[in-house]
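Methods — Computational structure assignment.
A single polypeptide chain was analysed. Its primary sequence is given first, followed by the predicted tertiary structure written as structure tokens.
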Amino acid sequence: MECGGCTSCCFAYPVVELDKPSLTECEYADKGCSIYRVRPDSCRDCYCAWITQPKVAIELRPDKCGVVFEKIDDKTILATLLSKPTKEAVGQKRNFEKQGYKVVTNDCT
């Protein structure tokens, strides 16, 4: 799966190699990442659940649901809130919890 036009992680997370703090627009993000193939390790280390999980509904793409879900380890999901979560995002959070994950919320709103 590919990010499509979603650049939510580009906004939410810091990129040390580019001196980009969290919650700021990345200069390379415009309808996708213009340096995706050579992106820094900070970007490569982001594991957006919408990308990494098979068969995830388009409604759960971060720019559509207001949340970036990221698998931190085998027991933890980080939910970074970018806006008010949609009902689909709330349902996904419950889904992760039912699967045994601890969902930690990072509210950027």
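Note: The first strand starts at residue 67 and ends at 73.
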